[in-house]
């Protein structure tokens, strides 16, 4: 309620008693907020407090004071700033405690700690629960209800028949279950009259950032980026008449455009800033105002660029210097005193109604989660040493095929940093990226390639890159050799992996590229180049042949087929390219590599395209690998040109590296292959622009983007050499710049990941059964919320009555927790554990017993809860409250041991035995054995309680992309009706397949 101007005036309190008296007055109120109607953070804090106070009146329970609505608001604000040491509104008070501002309130709400505080404060002040309509009618702890938990009057087509129909459906489903009657079912006690679902008709839409900008940004990175912008602006202004300064400003404009669309990801300046801020604690801020500031920066830099390239208009470059000066001055304010003029302008637009206030909601809701995610990433736990476990088949003697595993948790995997143990074969993607860039610059400096294309490129850049490539290749090769010696089992696992094994062609192919870069350079090291070639090329051929043979013999699932399988033919094409460049007499041998590459590439193109079209990629770490589609025709184009030239030479000795080399032919097939590669690059570029890969976090697999761009650049150089002109010359420069910037950005990403300890660690395991561990994480977070709600049961009103508002909150949380627990246990007992025990009989006996024991306890607590709701003042009410307060938190603490036991033993043993198809089949059986009404409660429960966004996305993909993809939009419907608007907007961006009919962004599933 808005109390300013009523019986209580903060201005009068301040005048009568000073700042201290003002604060004491606010603390004397049960729930109070001081803010401004023009401040989105104040409005969001009020909404958060009102949501926490839903059981005691909602917004009416919050004493709200709007400083911009009263005459003495400025004086009150100054007094609160001085007394509370907080410079910005809002100021939030609950139960005599100053909580802080919007961030503090949002963080408490995200942890489930705000509602108990609010309800306790309301009870102490004697507030009564808000009316919620008709009283709940429960048919017992095992009762069934219509889907969605609605009453007959609201949700049933026939008031008198709805309950019977639901009971009949439940009985029929029970008959199909292996373990007797259905577990705990949702009823009208699950209905939350105060809930505002994400897609509710009266729920205001939450607006995420435009394009693919992140919802929160790091203030440290922004300030360091601004400092670099200041330097660039000063250099451009001082040397404004020089051509290189014009291109420097063009690069700044493109960098700003990249940050406007995607955030820090593709920006070299931002990635350099991230490296500088890697060891600092992030200062997270909502992304929307920063995106507006990026739009202003983009405008100023683009205008400066346009005027700089307008020939003859302003010879002294005064106009662009003015824009650069303004931009540099504003960037200096950002870097020096953390003042963002763009953010101020954005707040003015919100204040005057030009932009809706709801634009802040997603960023504000995301900030506490981002802080939690960072804390989880950097924390180090004192974990016990994993123990080796060996389980034989009952009644059989010990054997070599007994089930073996280590008792490890996910935290063990996350903290297992080791340079040798976790030097992965996929790290050689970075080597290939650097070697490929060196080869592109080397080709650009050749008269027959770059010279014919109209480029004037010195050899120095290619030489420096070649030296870097040699050092990186040697270092990683030494590290991987050490891994093969000390951890041969780890290398064997990578060699047997249907996806990673394809990367074993990268080291020898990189050696072939090094041969190309060193030929004719470094004192005429042509002989050395040929030696390197004849070491790398046969190894590439041998590995490619073996992998191809294994594809035909090893059992594979549709999931295993991926564009990464095109790496072996790509490596063979590389050998076919380099051989004629070293010596035209190698042309005939090069046809062998070329033929094998064609034989492998053609069917794999069909298969991988078919898989990409018909099956969604559940693990987004594999998405960058699709760029191998671009590399294959691009390298094939270069190989076709080189082989045609070698054939034309008649097999005489020579190479294409000298100044007297004949022009390279670019025939019909070469054009076709090049334009095919260019077309695929544009298609994948559009996928990047749609968010398919642009929102991905950096991973070693991101380096898969580098070599395809370099192969396309090499093809573009040959295309420009064969068809000289202004357009093709510009295409050549653009391709060279794009591939160079890509390697630079990926290198900075890698350095930042190294500083954060994110390279030499175990890759997170992810598969369909990951939904079990993710559900465990939801139980952990929900358990802490339930403990806080149980603690609030002990607060009483002024007359000593039971805190009925706290009881209502606890009852709702308990029922949802119990439902999720019951059906999670049912899924494990009836499907997952049965599959595990086909390999190890009796493996899950203890877990079966614990599930039965826990359900008995929850049945008893449910009975106590129903008795309290029916008669809060009854003779057994005090004892029931005491029992719930004592036993429920103790159960949650003990339940952690059950979760750890499953994760250490069952998940480890089961994941090693069950293939991907079996895991997906298990999830499908779980889906089919569970009523829709349960999924409508279970899915939102898990999603809302998972503490990190990446976990929610993985959980939803397990069901919507792996288990039941045809039900993806139904899953989205269940989730959208059980989570708030900011969370739904983020989920819809990450997993667009779940967007249901009628929601923004829906696409029909045919």
Q: What topology emerges from the helices and strands here?
A:
Elements: H1 10-28, E1 31-35, H2 40-52, E2 63-66, H3 73-84, E3 91-94, E4 97-100, H4 102-110, H5 114-124, H6 152-155, H7 162-176, E5 216-218, H8 219-238, H9 243-262, H10 268-276, E6 284-286, H11 287-308, H12 318-337, H13 341-351, H14 361-378, E7 388-391, E8 403-406, H15 410-415, H16 428-444, H17 447-451, H18 460-486, H19 488-496, H20 506-518, H21 526-553, H22 567-582, H23 587-614, H24 628-648, H25 668-689, H26 706-722, H27 726-755, H28 770-791, H29 804-837, H30 845-870, H31 877-913, H32 916-928, H33 932-945, H34 949-963, H35 968-976, H36 981-990
Parallel strand pairs: 1-2
Antiparallel strand pairs: 1-3, 3-4, 5-6, 7-8
Helix pairs in contact: 1-3, 2-4, 4-14, 8-9, 8-10, 8-12, 9-11, 10-27, 11-12, 11-13, 14-36, 16-18, 16-20, 16-26, 16-27, 18-19, 18-20, 20-21, 20-22, 21-22, 22-23, 22-24, 23-24, 24-25, 24-26, 25-26, 26-27, 28-29, 28-31, 28-33, 28-34, 29-30, 29-32, 29-33, 30-31, 32-34, 33-35
Features:
mainly alpha, two-stranded antiparallel ribbon, single chain, four-stranded mixed β-sheet, about 1000 residues
Short note summarizing the structure:
The protein has 1006 residues and is mainly alpha-helical.
- How many strands appear in the DSSP assignment? 8
Task: Estimate the helix proportion, in percent.
Answer: 55-70%
Largest beta-sheet details: 4 strands, mixed
Strand content: under 5%
Number of helices: 36
- Mean pLDDT, nearest integer? 87
Shape: globular
Which structural category fits the helices and strands? Answer: mainly alpha
> What is the alpha-carbon Rg in Å?
32 Å
Distance between the termini: 49 Å
Low-confidence stretches: 131-179
Largest sheet, spatial ordering of strands: 2-1-3-4
């Amino acid at each position: 309620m808005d109390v300013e101007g009523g019986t209580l005036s903060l201005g009068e309190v301040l005048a009568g008693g000073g700042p201290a008296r003002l604060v004491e007055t606010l603390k004397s109120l049960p729930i109070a907020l001081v803010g401004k109607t023009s401040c989105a953070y104040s409005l969001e804090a009020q909404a958060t407090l009102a949501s926490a106070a839903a059981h005691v009146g909602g917004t009416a329970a919050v004493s709200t004071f709007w400083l911009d609505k009263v005459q003495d608001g400025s004086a009150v604000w100054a007094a609160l700033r001085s007394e509370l040491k907080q410079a910005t509104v809002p100021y939030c008070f609950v139960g005599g405690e100053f909580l802080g501002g919007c961030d503090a309130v949002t963080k408490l709400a995200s942890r489930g700690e705000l509602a108990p505080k609010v309800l306790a404060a309301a009870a102490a002040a004697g507030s009564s629960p808000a009316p919620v309509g008709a009283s709940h009618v429960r048919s017992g702890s095992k009762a069934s209800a219509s889907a969605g938990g609605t009453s007959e009057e609201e949700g049933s087509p026939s008031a008198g028949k709805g309950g019977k129909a639901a009971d009949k459906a439940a009985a029929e489903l029970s008959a199909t279950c292996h373990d007797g009657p259905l577990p705990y079912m949702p009823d009208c006690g699950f209905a939350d009259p105060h809930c505002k679902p994400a897609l509710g008709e009266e729920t205001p839409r939450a607006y995420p950032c435009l394009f693919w900008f992140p919802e929160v940004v790091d203030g440290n990175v922004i300030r360091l980026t601004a400092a670099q912008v200041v330097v660039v602006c000063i250099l451009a202004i001082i040397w404004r008449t020089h051509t290189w300064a014009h291109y420097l400003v063009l690069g700044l404009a493109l960098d700003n455009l990249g940050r406007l669309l995607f955030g820090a990801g593709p920006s070299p300046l931002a990635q350099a800033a991230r490296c500088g801020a890697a060891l600092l604690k992030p200062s997270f801020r909502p992304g929307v105002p920063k995106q507006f500031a990026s739009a202003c920066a983009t405008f100023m830099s683009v205008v400066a660029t346009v005027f700089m390239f307008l020939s003859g208009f302003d010879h002294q470059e005064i106009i662009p210097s003015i824009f650069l000066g303004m931009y540099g001055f504003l960037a200096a304010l950002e870097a020096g005193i953390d003042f963002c003029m763009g953010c101020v302008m954005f707040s003015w637009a919100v204040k005057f109604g030009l932009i809706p206030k709801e634009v802040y909601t997603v960023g504000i809701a995301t900030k506490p989660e981002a802080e939690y995610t960072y804390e989880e990433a950097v924390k180090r736990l004192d974990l016990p040493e994993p123990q080796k476990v060996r389980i034989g088949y009952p009644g059989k003697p010990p054997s070599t095929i007994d089930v073996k595993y280590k008792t490890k948790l996910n935290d063990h995997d996350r903290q297992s940093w080791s340079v040798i143990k976790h030097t992965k074969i996929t790290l050689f993607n970075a080597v290939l990226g650097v070697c490929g860039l060196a080869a592109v610059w080397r080709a650009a400096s050749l008269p027959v390639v770059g010279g014919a294309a109209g480029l004037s490129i010195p050899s120095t850049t290619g030489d420096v890159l070649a030296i870097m490539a040699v050092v990186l290749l040697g270092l990683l090769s030494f590290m991987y050799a050490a891994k093969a010696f000390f951890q041969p089992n780890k290398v064997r696992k990578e060699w047997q992996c249907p996806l990673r094994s394809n990367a074993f062609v990268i080291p020898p192919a990189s050696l072939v590229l090094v041969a190309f870069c060193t030929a004719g350079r470094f004192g005429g090291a042509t002989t050395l180049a040929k030696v390197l070639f004849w070491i790398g090329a046969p190894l590439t051929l041998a590995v490619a042949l073996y992998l191809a043979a294994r594809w035909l013999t090893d059992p594979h699932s549709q999931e295993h087929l991926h564009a990464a399988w095109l790496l072996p033919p790509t490596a063979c094409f590389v050998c076919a390219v380099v051989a004629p460049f070293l010596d035209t007499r190698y042309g005939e041998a090069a046809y062998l590599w070329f033929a094998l590459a064609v034989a492998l590439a053609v069917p794999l193109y069909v298969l991988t395209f078919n898989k990409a079209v018909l099956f969604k990629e559940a693990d987004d770490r594999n998405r960058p690998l699709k760029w191998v589609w671009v590399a294959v025709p691009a390298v094939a184009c270069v190989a076709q040109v080189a082989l045609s030239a070698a054939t034309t030479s008649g097999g005489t000795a020579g190479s294409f590296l000298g100044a007297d080399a004949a022009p390279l032919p670019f025939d019909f097939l070469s054009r076709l292959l090049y334009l095919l590669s260019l077309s695929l690059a544009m298609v994948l570029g559009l996928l990047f622009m749609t968010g398919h890969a642009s929102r991905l976090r950096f991973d070693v697999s991101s380096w898969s983007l580098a070599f395809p761009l370099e192969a396309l650049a090499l093809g573009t150089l040959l295309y420009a050499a064969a068809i000289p002109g202004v357009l093709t010359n510009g295409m050549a420069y653009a391709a060279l710049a794009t591939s160079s910037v890509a390697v630079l950005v990926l290198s900075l990403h890698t350095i930042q990941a190294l500083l954060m300890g994110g390279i030499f660690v175990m890759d997170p395991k992810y598969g369909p059964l990951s939904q079990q561990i993710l559900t465990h994480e939801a139980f952990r977070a929900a358990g802490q919320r339930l403990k806080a709600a149980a603690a609030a049961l002990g607060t009483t009103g002024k007359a000593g009555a039971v805190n009925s508002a706290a009881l209502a909150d606890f009852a709702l949380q308990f029922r949802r927790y119990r439902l999720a627990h019951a059906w999670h246990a049912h899924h494990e007992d009836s499907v997952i554990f049965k599959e595990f025990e086909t390999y190890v009989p009796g493996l899950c006996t203890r877990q079966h017993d614990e599930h039965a024991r826990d359900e008995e306890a929850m049945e008893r607590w449910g009975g106590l809860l129903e008795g309290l709701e029916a008669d809060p003042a009854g003779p057994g009410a005090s004892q029931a409250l005491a029992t719930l307060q004592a036993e429920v938190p103790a159960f949650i603490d003990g339940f952690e041991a059950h979760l750890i036991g499953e994760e250490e033993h069952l998940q480890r043993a089961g994941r090693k035995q069950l293939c991907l198809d079996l895991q997906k089949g298990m999830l499908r059986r779980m889906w089919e054995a569970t009523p829709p009404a349960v999924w409508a409660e279970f899915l939102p429960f898990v999603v809302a309680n998972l503490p990190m966004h990446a976990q929610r996305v993985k959980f939803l993909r397990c069901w919507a992309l792996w288990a039941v993809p045809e039900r993806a939009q139904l899953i989205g419907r269940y989730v959208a009706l059980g989570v708030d608007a900011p969370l739904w907007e983020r989920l819809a961006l990450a997993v667009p397949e779940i967007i249901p009919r009628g929601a923004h962004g829906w696409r029909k599933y045919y």
